């Protein structure tokens, strides 16, 4: 257990080590107006070593944000546009015959990068999705008989459009569960949109982003994130929230029993704890408070709760259920 002096020392280390977060935010603000929520969730994924699924209608700067984040770091960026005719070899690579050497050599695919933008991930068939998701889980790729480790940091940022269902292949629940966060990207407010119009029309938007953080800083910060202090009461709070998604009747949420077909897996508990620690780190704190859990709960849980037909008939969403759980579970 950490003592008060330990936490105080950790606080000071984190306040110094987390300064690059402000540099990253300021650099991204040169090309992205608003969308602070999305930017912060991408940073949480990056610092927690977890992948992020972004869902939103076209034109909300999802691709631009991910590309700009990669530019602001000293890392390699790959974009894979998912289409129905894509093959697993187009993602991970394949063996090709080299005539001059008279042998087969490995041609590495776009997966060999630090930041992978999987654009419209639900447009590719299941075998392509599973090739990508295997790399996400194992952090390695097998081509022919050889296995290749992927470079760290390795972060998959996938986007999907919730509007069009024609010609899409929805991700199965087991595969969606591998994403640490599912972030729903909303529209900008009126003032932000006015600024977007003004800058785009006048051509004032910055074309490029400078490198303001190294991959070494990111990897060192990941180690520090795991050291953020989490009290046993906070751990119990996380467990109660996740268990309430599985057994709502045990927490006085009887009406939810017929609305939830399945609740969060142990990955939900692990990711909620990690994301809360990262959220505390980004707020320059060496300890987790209940508000950190509340701030990140929807992003961690919204894709891990299955709704019944009854819930869908009554227009009940996972967000509504998570709000009910957070209101009901006693805060430590």
Task: List descriptors.
alpha/beta; Helicase, Ruva Protein, domain 3; Rossmann fold; 5-stranded parallel β-sheet; 47% helix; globular
Q: Which second-level CATH architecture of the largest domain applies?
A: 3-Layer(aba) Sandwich
Please outline the major beta sheet.
5 strands, parallel
- Kindly state the number of beta strands: 11
Oligomer: single chain
Q: Average pLDDT, to the nearest integer? A: 85
Describe the structure.
There is one protein chain. The chain is of the alpha/beta class and 332 residues long. The chain has 2 domains: 1-30 and 229-332, Helicase, Ruva Protein, domain 3 (Orthogonal Bundle); 34-196, P-loop containing nucleotide triphosphate hydrolases (Rossmann fold). The chain is built from 14 helices and 11 strands. The chain has helices at 4-17, 19-28, 36-48, 62-71, 88-92, 126-138, 173-176, 190-202, 215-227, 232-246, 266-282, 290-301, 309-313, 318-328; strands at 52-55, 77-81, 93-98, 103-108, 115-119, 140-143, 146-149, 155-160, 181-184, 260-262, 306-307. The strands form 4 sheets. The protein has a 5-stranded parallel sheet with strand order 2-5-8-1-9. Helix 3 (36-48) crosses helix 11 (266-282) and helix 12 packs antiparallel against helix 14. It starts with a helix and ends with a helix. 37% of the residues are buried.
